[in-house]
User: What shape does this take?
Amino acid sequence: MTDEMAERITIREMVENWVVWRDALQWEKFRALWHDDGVMMATWTQGTADQFIEMSKQGFAKGVRILHFLGGSSIEVKGNRALSQTKMTISQRAPVHDVVCDVVCTGRFVDFWEKRAGRWGLVLRQPIYEKDRMDPVDPAAKLSLDQKLLMSFREGYRHLAYLQTQIGYKIKMDMPGLTGPEVEALYVRGASWLAGKPL
Assistant: This one.
């Protein structure tokens, strides 16, 4: 096994640990995946790893339930830097207009990694939101959405954003989707990161 292969395996393990430890509320282990200046971007919160953990704890205490599932990864390693893209789904359950609903959003986690003092850690996680849907948990339930509000959100995460507004979150409106200038800018940012440039 080459050194680069070993580094890719290490990073993939960390990607998998992120979703397991985050969803299992194992915050001490989860925090160890990040560098101190690491930043988490999401529809409902943006900030440092510590801020994300605190927001997640507060949300869980209020009944917020968000789960993550992973697919394949593409991992590029250049010296002490790496960039990974991992297929994922975000699943969230909450009441929408008094109807309990599930939203499933499919996309990718784009992770900016750096090896410092011999340890890989996350510097930035930026999700790409590709498509989503909302379904009542009870298939017999009647659900009517505010179409103006729904269509105010981007296509890749509009149902997720709709649900999250119903439980009090302010949504970031310019997250990258499958296509468009935001995702193109993210690709450029990733290439610059691998080339050694600052975020």
